[in-house]
Design goal:
By secondary structure, this protein is α/β, with parallel strands linked by helices. It is built from 17 helices and 35 strands.
């Protein structure tokens, strides 16, 4: 629930008063038992209510919204070197003063990545605490949140991570240097976070059954009060319909973090490659998509007739000197529960264990491998039309083949003239010279609520990422897979997000007074342009691929403050009362200001078929040389009816912190289902401050 708070009355007392008027027959001293959370930094609470009670409260004066406690999903070291960010890069002497708040599944504090050797005591600004866990000078805070108090089997009532996702993301951001790390021999090298001297504060809001809204908001509330500098959130909604900004817990929490100068970095989601499927799209958030890096893992399948096919997986089982009979899943149905049309996909309870035991099963779908594993198979070969740009671990030897190769395997498997045999080799690491490109699973834009805001903001490595892992957490999530590893390899925008979080923390260490918007701008305007040969172009990668070294010296930044976002919200059909209740300030939307006037580092223009002509206003702040002159350079696509005019085309500064405004006119003609990519670069000879400009018609 969200509503206006009387500053003279403690929030908890006000919420109890409100509930007392609804919970008829409940004594006041018992009302507090229905109040699960009363947030400090934003105006809301969480309470146990019936549907009728929720409706009564929703109609009360001063209540902006009442929404159910829904669930969020997880979005799941070569990467730093691949980005040109080596361990010996220039470091600020205040990096150890930067505190990164990680809202996730908790942490495994005993991991070697979280040793605190060489670190002094926490920064004096730190106000947090450790709850049911032992902290050190690396992990300086750890709390957990479970509003309903209901823990599932395997959950531990502490910030300790039993899933692995939280440990993986936290170590990617700020894990220490660990040599000879690998996933059971794959990806061997030095594991490290992007800011290995930064401090970690953990806010566990995810459990084996869910990541609940109430707990996520409570985590934001605590992180803001504790004094973190950057917040990392690798979580998001998987619902098909876009959630309004202020029924979205990450948007709510990140807005109030922004008010305190704290940037929230969040994952874009794993629902690609379709369009308009983004998560975490509020304009005050850094939204991060996933890209590949220059290593991939291949797994060969060798047949008894000598044919060899190259698939993908993270196969650590050494069976290359063993051969096993082959069987097609469609020829091995569990007739009591299934038929061949189901068993060919090797779904749960579809395979006949007597027929598949000790054999390699060919399945017509990309699966977890659980059903062949539980049925006693010796291995699994999968085929599907899904892309092959990532590798995953399985509980048994496995390889994911292209459809045409799998067709040849099937033909051999069903050849009745001889017994078919095969071998699945151990995975090997190979060079991917086409990297980086946007991962197939990474969620794309355009922005589902405000298409004039280009999202995602940028992309970062999110495929085959090696990072710390709890030894008690399952490698694959498949029951019976008891392998224990200190480091695991995952893919997802969950893995891309902490890379961007770390770069934001790196920038913060050099510029501790910069606002959240300034840091985000630095990351966006220095990002490396990517190839726009695919249909989605900037709708998939935003400003481009993150470029850590350039980000600390962007030259100019596109800054924005709370009032700028309030004006933006005024353009989103939210009335004065709602905006005032949500933000905690008295606002007045006297004018329905166009939302493209938000001072964003990128420009997106959704338009109808035919001609278009739109004027944008932007303001840049000089953070480079005091006396500098920037000239505008515009690049437009050849052969397309797109023109861009910038006025003035020269900006001359004489001091650091000086602001200057300019107009960008974007005009031309667009066809049906078309997208045109352009860019504006402000160049002073030392800095190239780049803003992508994308015009699209997706109707």
């Amino acid at each position: 629930m969200g509503g206006r708070i009387n500053p003279n009355v403690p929030a908890k007392d006000l919420h109890i008063d409100m509930l007392s008027g609804v919970l008829n027959g409940v004594p006041r001293h018992k009302v507090s038992e229905h109040l699960l959370y009363s947030y400090e930094n934003f105006h809301g609470c969480v309470a146990k209510l019936t549907e009728n009670e929720a409706k009564v409260i929703a109609d009360m004066v001063g209540v902006v919204s009442v929404f159910p406690n829904e669930k969020y999903d997880l979005h799941t070291t070569r990467s730093w070197d691949f980005m040109g960010f080596p361990l010996n890069v220039e470091r600020s002497n205040t990096e150890s003063d930067v505190i990164v708040g990680v809202i996730d599944f908790g942490i495994w504090p005993e991991s070697e990545s979280f040793q605190d050797e060489g670190l002094g005591p926490p920064p004096t600004k730190w106000k947090g605490r450790c709850h049911n866990i032992t902290c050190n000078n690396k992990i300086i805070g750890a709390q957990y949140f479970r509003a309903d108090g209901e823990f599932s089997n395997g959950d531990i009532a502490s910030p300790r991570d039993t899933n692995g996702h939280g440990t993986h993301t936290a170590s990617t951001v700020a894990g220490g240097v660990v040599k000879m790390a690998s996933f059971l021999g794959l990806g061997q090298g030095t594991a490290r976070g992007g800011v290995p001297s930064a401090r970690i504060a953990v806010y566990k809001s995810c459990w084996s059954d869910s990541c609940l809204f109430a707990d996520i908001l409570a985590a934001f509330d605590a992180a803001i009060s504790d004094g973190v500098d950057i917040i990392s959130v690798s979580l998001g909604s998987s619902r098909a319909q876009a959630r309004p900004y202020f029924t979205d817990p990450t948007a709510i929490g990140a807005f109030h973090a922004m008010k305190k100068g704290i940037l929230t970095s969040a994952s874009a989601g794993n629902r690609g490659p379709g369009l308009q499927i983004l998560g975490n799209y509020a304009p005050w958030i850094l939204t991060v998509g996933a890209s590949t890096m220059d290593r991939k893992f291949t797994t060969k399948v060798q047949l008894g007739n000598g044919m060899v096919f190259e698939g993908t997986s993270l196969n650590t089982f050494d069976t290359q000197h063993k051969t096993f009979p082959l069987i097609y899943g469609g020829d091995a149905p569990d007739t009591e529960l299934s038929n061949s049309s189901n068993s060919r996909f090797c779904l749960h309870n579809t395979l006949n264990s007597t027929l598949v035991e000790g054999k390699i099963v060919l399945c017509d779908r990309f699966i977890s491998g659980e059903e062949p594993y539980l049925a006693g198979a010796a291995g699994v070969i999968m085929q599907d039309v899904e892309p092959h740009d990532l590798a995953a671990p399985f509980p048994l030897p496995a390889s994911y083949l292209r459809v045409d190769d799998a067709a040849r395997v099937l033909s051999y498997t069903r050849n009745l003239t001889s017994t078919p045999f095969g071998t699945i080799h151990k995975s090997v690491e190979v060079k991917d010279t086409s990297a980086p490109y946007v991962a197939s699973f990474s969620s794309r834009g355009p922005h589902p609520l405000s298409p004039h805001i280009l999202k995602p903001d940028l992309v970062a490595p999110g495929v085959n990422i090696l990072a710390a892992w709890p030894p008690i957490a399952s490698v694959t999530g498949v029951e019976g897979d008891t392998r224990s590893v200190p480091y695991n390899m995952l893919y997802g925008t969950s893995m891309a997000c902490p890379h961007a979080t770390a770069v934001a923390a790196y920038v913060k260490s050099f510029h501790p007074t910069w606002s959240a918007a300034a840091i985000r701008s630095a990351l966006m305007t220095t990002a490396l342009p990517m190839s726009n040969t695919n249909e989605e172009a900037e709708l998939a990668y935003g400003s481009g691929h993150i470029n850590p070294l350039k980000a600390i010296d962007p030259g100019l930044v596109y800054d924005a403050e709370e009032g700028d976002y309030v004006k933006f919200l005024c353009s989103q059909d939210l009335n004065d009362t709602h905006i005032g209740l949500i933000t905690g300030i008295n606002s007045s939307c006297h004018k329905n200001r166009a939302n493209w006037d938000l001072n964003y580092p990128s420009i997106a223009l959704p338009t109808n078929l035919g001609p278009f002509d739109t004027m944008y206003t932007r303001t840049v702040t000089n953070v480079g040389s005091p006396n500098s002159t920037y000239k505008a350079a515009v690049t437009t696509p050849q052969g397309q009816a797109l023109s861009i005019k910038v006025r003035p085309s020269v900006l001359s500064f004489n001091s650091v912190g000086q602001k200057m405004s300019f107009n960008v006119r974007v005009y031309g003609t667009i066809g049906m289902r078309a997208l045109m990519s352009a860019s504006l670069v402000w160049d002073d000879g030392q800095h190239q401050v780049r803003s992508p400009i994308v015009v699209f018609n997706l109707s």
